[in-house]
Amino acid sequence: MARMVNENWCENDVQTTALNEPGRGTARWGPQHAGAKELANLYSPGKRCQEWISVVLCFSLMAFNFFHLFANFHLGHFWYILLCVVAGMLTADFASGLVHWAADSWGSVELPIFGKAFIRPFREHHIDPTAITRHDFIETNGDNCMLTLIPLAYMAFTVLTHSAAELYHSYLWNCYVMALAVFVTLTNQIHKWSHTYFGLPGLVVFLQNCHVILPRKHHRIHHVAPHEMYFCITTGWLNYPLEKLGFWCKLEDLIQSLTGEKPRSDDLKWAHKTK
Ligand SMILES: [Zn+2]
Ligand SMILES: [Zn+2]
C-alpha cells in the first residue's frame, strides 16, 4: 500500500476553534503540543504486548468462524444475511459512539492501569488528531480486537460443540454476531482512514464516498472543540439521529445530576497543558 500522507485539516479546524475560546491562550494542537507529547510517552511495552496478543487471537478466531459461516452458506438466505450484516453494522456504530462518548467525557488518564491504557489514546487524539495516522496496525486495532474476543471465542466454542441442527438454527444469529464483531474490530481502522487524505486504497475512498464507512468530512464535526457531538465512528449512520434526539446531552445531564461530575473536564485539562 502506498505510504499514507496526511492533511492537517483536523488540526487547523480544532486549532482555530480552540484559539477563539477564552482561556486557551497559545495552545498549539498537534505532535508539538505539550499534552500530546506527554500522552505519547505513556505508550508502554506492556500495552504493546496486550495489543499484539489481542490482534493475533481476534484474527485467528475470526478466520475460524468465517470459515464455518462460509462452509454453511445457502444462497436462499442471502437477503436475511444482508439484513443481519446491516443490523450488525448499526449495532457496531452505536457501540462505537457509546464507548467513544464515555472515554471522551468521563474518567481520567490518572485512573490506575485503565486510564493510561485505555483513556490516554482518546485524550491524545483530540490534541493531536493526526497521531492516529502514524500508529501502525497493532496500535490502531489492538484495543478493538480485545473487545471482540469473548463473543468470537463463544461462537467458535458453539461451532465445535453444537450439533448440525443447532448450528443451522443459529446461523443467522451467528451472521449478526460476526458482522458486529468485524465492524467493532475495524472501527479504529475506519476512524484512522477518516483522518487520512492521501494514499488510501480506492475501495476505501469509494466506501467513504458512499457513506458505507465513516466519511472524512462527516468526522470533522466531532473534531471541533469541545468534542461534544458525532461520537459514532464506524459508519457514522447514527450520528445525525442521535443528535436530533439530544441523546448524548441527556445522558450527560443525567450523569452530572447523579454524580456532580462535569463531562470532559479531564479532556479540557489535557488540552490546556502548556508544559
Ligand atoms: Zn473524541
Ligand atoms: Zn477522529
UniProtKB/TrEMBL annotation:
It comes from the Eukaryota. This is Uncharacterized protein. It comes from Dallia pectoralis (Alaska blackfish).
